[in-house]
Amino acid sequence: MDAKVKMRLQWVQLYQKTGNASVSCRRCGISRPTLRKWTQRYEQQGLEGLQDQSRRPKNCPSPKVLEQHRQWIVSLRQRRLGPRRIQSELIRLHQFSLSTATIHKVLTQLGQKNLKATRRPRKAKKRYQKDTPGERVQMDVCKIAPKLYQYTAIDDCTRLKIVRLYPNKKAGNTLSFIDQLINEFPFPIQRLQTDRGEEFMAFAVQRRLMALHIKFWAFLKKVDSRLKWLRLV
Fold this sequence. Notes:
Layout: H1 3-18, H2 21-28, H3 32-45, H4 67-77, H5 83-94, H6 100-109, E1 137-145, E2 148-155, E3 161-166, H7 171-184, E4 191-194, H8 198-201, H9 203-211, E5 215-219, E6 229-231
């Protein structure tokens, strides 16, 4: 007799002897449904009922994916489409719907490898710069501490930079900084670009730039984008 059948027979015999399911389950270390199942099988079929039975389903459903469907999937795969795109194309072209998991399973069975993401080559970044040194010099002021302001000027061609510190950002300091630029830059300044700060828009600063024949462009922050630059000189 098989060891499993022998053990199940002992469960049934203990239950028949005691007549108490709780005691039998506690002694055998099994649950009530398990004891009930084997007891009913033994009463109906005898020792044959204690044998392991096949768990194969009685009815086998028809395959979900037919050969025609596989051919559709393969033809769409040749267009380098992934499961989601293949799903959309099946509905659009053949009015047939499959889940993406099923499509992926079919592709795996057919030995189709996953598509590799193709990256477009990055365009080389073109550095912004002017062709001639001094053609445009950008200047700005920022507050870095109480009563301490940093004036900065950068040439758009050579990236040459000059920085100076002042206790405030008045027109007098702007004139002083412009003199520093003229003395330290090894090339003439053709155009100066700033924002519309009062330290740059002062008449004294504008007259000085006109006398030096330096063009002045001020950036408009809160106006129509079509009027981005205001040319004052």
